[in-house]
Structure to design on (1116 residues):
């Protein structure tokens, strides 16, 4: 098995897919989260229901969707509703189990910045903004993020809090009365971080061959390590085959960080 | 009672300098043709509102039509950054006002409902609330947590592209329906562009499909392919190649100007634009039909 | 993953004594079969909520199932008074809580949205506000007139009859859609009855027609004609003769008891009820088809 | 012309129809208002758009609808929407020109009681309740009511204000910030009442052959009479023919008060 080669993207996608449970209702983003969900659906979670913020429920895309509003998500889906409905009746009402987040920065308490680097009024780098992520982070039962393990992506504190993880600690999240459990898993190309009792993201798993030191060196805060650190299951040929042959045959999303 | 006029006349009659314009759509049915006509007519100082400003707002900003954007996610969908809007903001050349998706859509829903505001639950992320004074919080009169509120958005003009409409503006749309209905009801004036103008009897054959009623519509324009490079579900595919190309074009002012000269100023209308795209592109974007199951309303 | 069970089992499993029940519908698709099954199973102390309680709530109150009604218009639609509910209120034998239509539907919409409350504009008519402490007014944080607010309604069970659903509860409905969607999202549990159980592919052939997704549904029951004497658009007509007849039946307790004995307690299920109605009634209520125009979603 | 015979209902329906303008968007009730609207559509207002609180827009019923949710209103209509949409996007937003009201009592200031006779908590006669009328009265541009001219129907002050006319006078309505112009016409079988500057309903028209004394004797307040009192146009054969032959051939709604 040890001669199986895979990219960082493939490693993250496969490990993210494994976090999904059968019958989960997942709020999916395009790109890597979409691949993770479709991989899960084709392996251990055939009853996964994929929801897109464009208002599509139960998508079964016949081709790789290239945007969150791709027409292939619509044809053959279970339902299409307005944006107001998807955010109110689905997300705010508590009908979404899993949210996949994106963002330029994620901090020690799982908070995300997708808005701005530098001051808000005079931005150095103006990012796309919240989109749906402010609400997904608050109201989905479980949130995950996939991101390469790099110091600049993991500052101690985000410059702008686009979406709440545990804010300044778990008590803050409880005080705001948010229904979801927050950022429960950060999948990187080194391993995985999960929140401890205080809401601080700590290293809980390493991918085969990766080390605690690598993780610490690439994290912007003093990364704690779980008492029992897990090693993730090896990437399987079957998982790679589905990804490469069925889901992204031209490698649009799989090639990154190869 | 027909409201059927040319898009040129509709933009001329119903879009004024300084207007708040909401060109609706979430990736789907984006009214590019209307945006290009606004550029051709040299409208100025527009406030461009949309949850997801994309290429058409990038182009309108590049052409000098806008003084401000109101948005919740600013990107080239599926590709990356919306370079021109982004750069204009970074350089301090463009005003902006920002919400989450739900905040933006809630503003429209309040506008569509004739309400002054609508509430949302707290999200714990308060930084946007700190920089945008329109986002407020009020107590829950029933004793729960405070709620977040946003004020109604009532654009001067909404522009909505639909699959089919009758000449009075009663419109069927399907596929991703984003915020088209809310924009149409919220706005003071509505310009509709349509892939097809159909007999009223076609609309009346499926009234549950009618999302926009003619009574709120000011102008109906027959503009096939008005949404290219976006798409019209069931009519043609999204031109992903152009979305990728724009990522390059928008890297320099020169190439943007060249694009506008050739594809906006250089064509008379959408018909000329579509012809100019050529048969190879037409073929690449063509799709095979996949029909809905019919239903019966019954004769009563 | 199929949720397909008998209506008898669905009512037994998902309706408990004391529940807030919302049997949805505005004149159309009224879930009579479920109401009759609730009567047969002798459920007690229910709180019956609906904007427009009609004959089925009259019958459930007559059968002793209810302790309270929540409503906004109480009538025998198109005929007149809802005698049994009305008399029970006049005699002080039934609790009630009252709103305008918009107030009632706003409560459901808040419940469906997961919000604690929603606002409405003032109507100038304040007497209902004076007698119902749940109706409050709060300031407009943007400086306009005070708005009226009502709290979310989240029924324990919503019962919704639809034209077609798959076995997981994904449902198409058309014609008058009243508050069915809002009730389904607002409720903690949803019982669906359907004229037809169809393959998932039929639902997936027209996703914009799906108003209720399976993910919020607890039970799916195949019950053709479940809405009689109300109707199912495209399937059969409203039995207006029965609505007129009920006006007489409901004049005396004896004739109501006779009706319940014969048509509710005296039949096993809706199938037996429909057979008992007989061919003459079937024929009178039958309708000719009138089909929608198809649309194409396109192969992508 | 003087030997044309008609019922009170026919007289009221025909006079109400005449109040409608071409292209009005009308919130219609079943029964007499439905007949008035259909009559107007077949005579001077072919572009009338009929909206029903059941959520139907632009109905063109092929048979006489027997309830506000009759399936004949749906088949062939322009649009069908949810109740929430019809009350918010149409009525509250200001897209409705005319509302037809019903009710057991209407008072000096055009306020309506459709809720209760006797105390609210211990009702003597429990009426159906508001339905949509609280909102129609507030937000439609113009409201009309058709009702036989009887003292018990026209008390000085309603026992319960289900729907606002001018409340205690026009200033009250303005203070509440209601968008519509309120109760602008009460059509009875004697004549018509319209609000004066203070919002008080005064007698402004008489049907042919009716007298001011009759109107006063059948009104529960001291009915003022307009300086210029109008006599309504004679009921025409054409109007009666449409009503009797096309719209209500079995006389379900036309026979009352014959």
């Amino acid at each position: 098995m040890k001669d199986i080669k895979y990219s960082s993207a493939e490693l993250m996608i496969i490990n993210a897919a494994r976090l999904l449970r059968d019958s989960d209702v997942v709020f999916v983003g395009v790109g890597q989260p979409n691949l993770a969900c479709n991989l899960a659906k084709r392996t251990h979670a055939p009853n996964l229901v994929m929801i897109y913020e464009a208002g599509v429920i139960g998508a079964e895309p016949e081709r790789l969707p290239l945007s969150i509003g791709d027409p292939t998500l619509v044809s053959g889906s279970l339902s299409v509703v307005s944006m107001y409905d998807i955010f109110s009746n689905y997300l705010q009402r508590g009908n979404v189990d899993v949210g996949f987040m994106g963002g330029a920065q994620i901090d020690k308490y799982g908070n995300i910045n997708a808005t701005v680097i530098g001051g808000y009024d005079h931005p150095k780098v103006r990012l796309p903004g919240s989109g749906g992520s402010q609400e997904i982070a608050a109201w989905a039962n479980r949130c995950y993020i996939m991101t390469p393990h790099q110091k600049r992506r993991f500052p101690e504190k985000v410059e702008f809090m686009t979406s709440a993880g545990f804010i300044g600690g778990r008590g803050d999240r409880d005080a705001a009365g948010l229904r979801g459990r927050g950022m429960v898993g950060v999948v990187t190309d080194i391993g995985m971080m999960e929140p401890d009792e205080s809401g601080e993201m700590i290293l809980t798993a390493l991918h085969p061959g990766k080390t605690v030191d690598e993780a610490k060196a690439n994290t912007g805060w003093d990364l704690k390590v779980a008492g029992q650190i897990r090693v993730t299951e090896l990437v399987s040929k079957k998982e790679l085959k589905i990804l490469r042959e069925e889901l992204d045959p031209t490698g649009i999303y799989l090639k990154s960080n190869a | 009672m027909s409201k059927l006029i040319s898009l040129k006349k509709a933009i001329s009659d119903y879009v004024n300098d300084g207007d708040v314009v909401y060109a609706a759509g979430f990736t789907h049915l984006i009214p590019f043709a209307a945006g290009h006509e606004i550029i051709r007519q040299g409208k100025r100082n527009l406030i461009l509102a949309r949850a997801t400003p994309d290429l058409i707002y990038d182009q309108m900003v590049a052409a000098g039509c806008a003084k401000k954007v109101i948005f919740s996610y600013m990107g080239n969908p599926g590709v990356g950054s919306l370079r021109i809007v982004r750069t204009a903001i970074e350089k301090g050349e463009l005003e902006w006002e920002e919400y989450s998706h739900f905040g933006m859509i809630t503003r429209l829903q309040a506008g569509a409902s004739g309400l002054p505001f609508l509430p949302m639950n707290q999200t714990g992320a308060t930084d946007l609330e700190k920089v945008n004074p329109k986002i407020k919080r009020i107590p829950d009169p029933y004793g729960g947590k405070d709620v977040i509120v946003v004020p109604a958005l009532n654009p001067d003009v909404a522009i909505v592209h639909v699959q089919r409409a009758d000449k009075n503006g009663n419109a069927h749309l399907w596929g991703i329906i984003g915020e088209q209905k809310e924009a149409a009801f919220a706005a003071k004036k509505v310009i509709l562009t349509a892939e097809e103008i159909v007999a009223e009897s076609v609309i009346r054959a499926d009234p549950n499909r009618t999302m926009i009623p003619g009574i709120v519509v000011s102008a109906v324009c027959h503009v096939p392919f008005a949404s290219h490079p976006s798409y019209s579900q069931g009519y043609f595919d999204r031109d992903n190649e152009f979305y990728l190309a724009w990522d390059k074009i928008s890297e320099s002012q020169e190439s943007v100007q060249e694009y506008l000269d050739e594809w906006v100023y250089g064509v008379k209308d959408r018909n000329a634009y579509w012809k100019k795209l050529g048969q190879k592109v037409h073929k690449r974007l063509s799709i095979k039909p996949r029909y809905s199951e019919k239903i019966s309303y019954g004769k009563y």
Q: What stands out?
A: Chain A touches chain B through 58 residues (CB under 8 Å).
